[in-house]
Design a protein that fits this description.
- With 198 residues, the chain is mostly beta strands.
- The chain has strands at 4-7, 10-13, 60-61, 66-67, 74-85, 93-97, 100-105, 111-116, 121-127, 130-133, 139-145, 148-161, 167-180, 183-197.
- Strands 5-7-8-9-10-12-13-14 form an eight-stranded antiparallel barrel.
- It starts with a strand and ends with a strand.
- It has one domain.
């Protein structure tokens, strides 16, 4: 079972199925990687089609900055704080995530695909400088939580691109379902953070 090593108020997650040893290369890695979401290892979302290039995805500017799906494309360094609150908890579980996310164009116009460290991919629809995940399609498994590995279903997940195209603000809120006491427990999962383009 996946465990959490606590460092003050911040918990550093260890990938499901690991030995439980936290090495220097693992600090701040793995675990609750949400593409927004690293912590994810599975998804039903399709990946990008090779050679996909739609004129509607080309970056554009209306004087307020770069916009459109292509403006999100690239490799981004993420710093995310995840707060998990479960029934009966007196203190929420907090995780600091520092991993990369790779964003590519999706197969449909005005879409992008974010692929986290660990393999979980999520498709987003882009409008202007905001990308939003598709409701019911933003699901990742093998997500670390206070009670072990679970499944994260996002109810709201957005990327907001800065006017200079160099940073993204992430906001996500969903439900983390984990095994607990012979059944399951649903916990609130909130993630906020910043991506910096590499």
């Amino acid at each position: 079972m996946r465990t959490v090593v606590s460092v003050g108020l911040i918990a550093l997650p260890i990938a499901c199925g690991s030995s439980g040893n936290l090495g220097a290369a693992d600090a701040g890695e793995g675990g609750h990687d949400s593409a927004g979401g690293g912590r994810h290892h599975d998804s039903a979302s399709p990946g990008p089609e090779a050679g996909t290039d739609s004129s509607s995805d080309a970056p554009s500017s209306d004087g307020d900055g770069v916009m459109g799906a292509a403006a999100f494309v690239g490799t981004w360094a993420r710093t995310i704080v995840v707060t998990i609150t479960c029934p009966g908890m007196t203190t929420p579980d907090m995780q600091l995530i520092k991993t990369d996310i790779v964003i590519t164009l999706g197969t449909a116009p005005d879409t992008i695909v974010g692929t986290q460290t660990g393999g979980c991919s999520t498709t987003y629809t882009v409008s202007g400088n905001v990308a939003s995940s598709m409701v019911g399609m933003d699901v990742c498994t093998d997500i670390i939580g206070p009670y072990g590995c679970g499944t994260l279903t996002q109810a709201k997940h957005t990327f907001t691109l800065s006017s200079d195209g160099k940073t993204i603000a992430q906001a996500a809120q969903g439900t983390l379902t984990q095994p607990f006491d012979g059944g399951t427990v649903d916990c609130d999962d909130v993630a906020t953070g910043t991506f910096i383009k590499k």
